[in-house]
Design a protein that fits this description.
Helix 14 (about 315-325) runs parallel beside helix 26. The chain has 26 helices and 14 strands. By secondary structure, the chain is α/β, with parallel strands linked by helices. The longest helix has 26 residues, at about 605-630. The strands form four sheets. The protein has a seven-stranded parallel beta sheet, sandwiched between helices. Strands 3-2-4 form a three-stranded antiparallel beta sheet, with no helix packed on it. A two-stranded antiparallel ribbon has the order 5-6.
């Protein structure tokens, strides 16, 4: 439940954080000398990672440049832990008042009594992150930037380590730290782990471009150009490889269109990049929710939400389909929509609707209507001038990438598909990576809706070999159909943990020049691949490798042979480049089970691997039967 709540908060916060202050920041002083041992003569091009949403530490500041502190004395930070976004003590103190107004609203039948108080509290929580109508912030921000390599970042203390203290206390009442990023590199690695690249090319060849995640996209792209010139100076190389991840895709669009000198670039890699925004953002702007779809509400909405929050809890979602019928559906279809509408209008309007980079996340097909609705008045003229400029770049992003590719720039794309967007929004059934629709991350793939396949009479844009194995999408319509990889069921929320999959592919593209396309010279990675959850697989492999000689000698020769065989299978599975979810899970299960039998693991394999598989079909069948017999309605 904690993870579920944090993801719901993240969905809102992802669209409510800030950007650069009132003008473009000056370039900081940095070392202009070549700092690499190779002096630019090695085979590896330096890499620049342009991260996604809230993967930099951004401190909100007052007009004098001082960090704004909470009532507990902690800084308000965008991009670390959700609790540092707000004055949590003020919010928790307001809970009794909210509950009281809820009771009064129920007694009097006046829901505005409760909503007025809720809006007041949300406003108090968010107002330090507000924006003006012209697109400037009401407060300033300071970004922890790294105008040096990861090797140097390893030696620099991280600012958060000194005073980013959490709200939990030990038995003696001492405040416990939430994060222990002793050095800046510790934070960088926690965001995007490219250790494999660093081990091959050197930590002095790896750079992390930090920026205020929801900043002025065009200004950030211009700053990236300056950053790339710095990387060339410090490494001695005349070209760099740039990886654009998630929100970084919007920076990539602007950079390639306005600031890129092709002579500076060796390779460009888009990984789950929002090249054409996300319907998650545009639906939130429109307060377009799906609660009034009663059939969805009583069938797949809750299971999909729980699947998004924590895989393995699908069964609970189907069980809750029975529980939610206790509450009148009108509460969700009417009251929740009304509450959300007021919060968006009265609070989020000062955030997402006034922030330039939030508009960069609006799909191009939705931009003109939303811009006319929210920012076409005189007060928003300065903001709209910026968003109009980005819109022209965005709708031509595919053409720009294709042109640069045809002129010789190596551009590659990696994207996830086959998952829905969050089921609470109106456009939930786009095939996506849970956050961004495939049309955006792929630079133009044609896809059926979530759970469906392309029509029988569909004619491939190129030929059948570009149609996904499940028949749901056509890679032939992409801007770069031969250089785009698709990973079925790869969730955007699991990119950070996909070190052995998506991130590994990024690293191989960056370091292995024999990889030139996604179809033939692809380094062994098939164009259509499948997400596999290797977190657990890596854990059990580590458990085996941590066994002492004494532990190993305590088992029989037969058991040791079986344990070694399970370990070798697991290691081979982890090294595969053609990924398969079931194979990875089976290898994990086999090794875990043997470790458990020998007393080296604690939890029973049935509970760890099979509970969801047993309960989900049962509760889904019952839920489907209830829907068929009773209908899509509450108990009243």
């Amino acid at each position: 439940m904690k993870k579920f709540i944090s993801i719901l908060l993240a969905t809102v916060i992802v669209v409510t954080t800030g950007f650069s202050v009132f003008a473009a920041k000056p370039i900081p002083e940095y070392d202009h000398n070549c700092l690499t041992e190779c002096e630019g003569e090695c085979e590896y091009t330096p890499i620049v990672v342009v991260h996604g949403i809230m993967q930099s530490q951004v401190y909100v500041q007052d007009k004098e440049g001082n960090d704004i502190l909470t009532s507990d004395g902690f800084p308000i930070v965008e991009g670390m832990d959700m609790q540092f976004m707000f004055d949590m003590k003020t919010i928790t103190n307001a809970i009794p008042s909210i509950l009281l107004k809820l009771v009064l609203g129920l007694i009097t039948g006046n829901r505005d009594i409760f909503i007025d108080e809720l809006v007041r509290v949300v406003d108090t929580a968010f107002n330090s992150h507000y924006f003006n109508a012209d697109g400037t912030r009401t407060n300033g921000v300071h970004v922890d930037e790294y105008w040096y390599s990861d090797e140097v970042a390893m030696t620099k203390p991280d600012k958060s380590y000194g005073y980013a203290q959490g709200y939990k206390k030990d038995d003696n009442g001492n405040t416990l730290p939430s994060y222990k990023y002793e050095h800046e590199y510790d934070f960088i690695k926690a965001q995007v782990d490219i250790t494999d690249y660093c081990e091959k090319a050197g930590y002095d060849h790896a750079y992390y471009f930090a920026y205020s995640s929801f900043g002025d996209t065009l200004e950030t792209a211009e700053r990236l150009d300056s950053y790339i010139q710095m990387v060339k100076e410090q490494t001695g190389h005349d070209k760099v490889t740039v990886v654009f991840i998630s929100l970084g895709g919007t920076i990539g669009n602007a950079y390639l269109a306005k600031y890129c000198n092709p002579d500076d670039i060796d390779r460009v890699i888009y990984a789950a990049a929002a090249t054409d925004g996300s319907y998650l953002l545009s639906d939130l702007m429109n307060a377009a929710f799906s609660f009034d779809d009663s059939e969805l509400f009583y069938s797949e909405m809750l299971p999909l939400i729980l699947q998004l929050a924590d895989g393995g809890m699908d069964w609970l979602g189907y069980l809750l389909n029975f529980v939610t019928r206790i509450i009148p559906h009108s509460f969700f279809a009417d009251d929740v929509d009304y509450i959300a509408g007021r919060v968006i209008k009265e609070v989020l309007g000062n955030l997402i609707m006034n922030c330039p980079s939030m508009w960069a996340l609006v799909p191009s097909a939705e931009y003109e209507a939303l811009a006319a609705k929210y920012i076409s008045d005189e007060a928003h003229a300065a903001l709209k001038a910026k968003t109009d400029e980005y819109y022209e770049i965005q709708k031509n992003a595919g053409a720009t990438a294709k042109k640069l590719s045809e002129e010789g720039m190596d551009i590659f794309v990696i994207c996830g598909y086959g998952l829905p967007l969050p089921s609470v929004i109106e456009n939930w059934n786009y095939s996506s990576d849970n956050i961004i629709q495939i049309q955006s991350t792929s630079l133009g793939a044609t896809s059926a809706k979530y759970g469906e396949v392309l029509p029988e009479n569909y004619k491939p844009a190129i030929d059948e070999s570009y149609i996904s194995p499940d028949g749901s999408l056509d890679a032939g319509t992409c801007a770069l159909p031969d250089r785009t990889w698709f990973v079925k069921n790869q969730s955007h929320l699991k990119l950070q943990s996909s070190v052995e999959d998506v991130i590994a592919l990024c690293v191989d593209i960056a370091t292995n020049k024999s990889i030139t396309d996604a179809r033939v010279n692809n380094g062994g990675y098939p164009q259509f691949n499948e997400y596999r959850d290797v977190d657990g697989l890596g854990d059990v492999i580590n458990t085996y490798e941590r066994l002492t000689e004494e532990q190993i000698s305590s088992v029989s020769a037969e058991d040791k042979a079986e344990l070694d065989a399970a370990y070798e299978t697991a290691v081979k599975e982890l090294a595969k480049r053609a990924w398969n979810f079931d194979d990875a899970r089976q290898a994990e299960k086999a090794l875990y089970t043997k470790l458990y039998e020998l007393g080296f693991e604690d939890d029973k394999p049935f509970e760890k691997y099979e509970l969801n598989g047993v309960l989900t079909p049962i509760f889904k069948t019952l839920s489907d039967l209830m829907l068929k017999l009773y209908g899509a309605r509450d108990y009243y």
